[in-house]
Design a protein that fits this description.
207 residues, mainly alpha
Length: 207
């Protein structure tokens, strides 16, 4: 056995260890579609906020009615559900092509590490909504989602880490522009998902 065979064996072992510790069936296309869904949702949210006769005030000092808040919540839930279904379906399809399992140790660790910051942020945001501190909701959703991505990136594709860092930076930046939360949402959950999803698709899915 020559040196080339040894190197090939080492590469095969490294690939097997990487596959067992990381969830590599994450679909880049699902990120692109999730971003598109978010932009569509942002459009309907914009119409709800700024063309609803029950909302009052200017762009930065807007008073949103309870009915408008409920509609915004419904839009967010619909976007999240459709994005999750798309992500699961495309990940299953990608895994089936490589004969990998979608639900394994790596995907369990990925989910747990992603949900810890997300659940923490969710409870905190519910508290802010109860106290009617609505201005910080947009920045915090971006920040906690970004923390979830960074925390979970150890168990999936490394590009997710950079997506998370970008989300955190956008969230921090949006704290200086509290009246423009919907714009930062569209940039973060829409444009960034499309951008990083495209990178991941051409980098991994097209192989």
């Amino acid at each position: 056995m020559d040196s080339k065979d040894y190197l090939k064996d080492i590469q095969d072992i490294k690939q097997m260890m990487n596959q067992s510790s990381r969830f590599i069936s994450l679909s880049g296309l699902s990120g692109v579609l999730a971003g598109i869904y978010c932009l569509i949702g942002a459009y309907f949210a914009y119409k709800t906020i700024y063309f609803d006769t029950s909302t009052l005030g200017g762009y930065k000092n807007l008073i949103i009615s309870e009915a408008a808040v409920i509609r915004l919540f419904c839009i967010a839930i619909i976007v999240i559900i459709i994005s999750l279904i798309t992500g699961i379906v495309l990940s299953i399809r990608k895994a089936s092509k490589t004969n990998d399992k979608v639900w394994n140790i790596a995907s369990k660790r990925l989910l747990i590490n992603f949900l810890i910051p997300l659940a923490t942020g969710g409870f905190f945001i519910i508290y802010l909504i109860e106290k009617e501190i609505l201005g910080l909701i947009a920045p915090l959703t971006l920040i906690f989602y970004g923390l979830g991505c960074v925390n979970a990136s150890k168990y999936t594709l490394g590009d997710v880490r950079y997506l998370g860092i970008t989300m955190i930076l956008l969230g921090l930046l949006s704290t200086w522009f509290l009246g423009y939360g919907l714009l930062f949402w569209a940039l973060g959950f829409g444009v960034c998902h499309i951008l990083y999803g495209s990178i991941m698709y051409f980098k991994y899915d097209r192989k």
